[in-house]
Amino acid sequence: MTATTFDKPAVEDRTSSSSPPPLRLQLAPPGTAPALIDGAWWPCSRDLTAELPLLTAALDPRWGRITHVTVNPTFWPVIPRKVPVQGHVVKVGWFKAEQDPHKLLLLSYTSGRWDLLVIPPETDAVTAARLMTTATDPARSLTASGLIQEAERFRIAAEAEAAAWDAARETVWDSEGGHDARHTSSHGPVGTAIGRAPIPAAGK
Length: 204
Description:
By secondary structure, the protein is α/β, with parallel strands linked by helices. It has five helices and seven strands.
């Protein structure tokens, strides 16, 4: 296997250009021990007809011609029976209970079976990058769903930490007079000006 990463294009670039979007894929480096996941794929959509040709075009030279693909229908709204790709047709099947919903299974006549983590298309770039790195780590041992759950826990923890940091910073600001200074700056000068206004002398 070969480690390959393709950058995510901007949404506006995909819609304004007639060329297909770059593939977003990372495979475990060659020589790593067998694992539950052989790499991670971050498709741009849940449209297998549009996404599979790009994927197989990258994998055929490395893994041999991909002939069959299976998915779990949980996250794929339409599952075509066959998808035309470069020079041949890939047959598509599905398994509800037997296959991890976050995994894509690929079969090649020459190289056997390969399993990819499918990163949800709506995933933010930071989380997707983390998932790709984790899925191709030589020490990887989690299932596809396990990787997604771990990434979600990490995201929630990071958001909670950021919120706690913001709250702590606001507390320090208030304790050092920041809140009072804000209050004074908006109301204090007016009251001071009124209080120090000179009293006119009698007869003037």
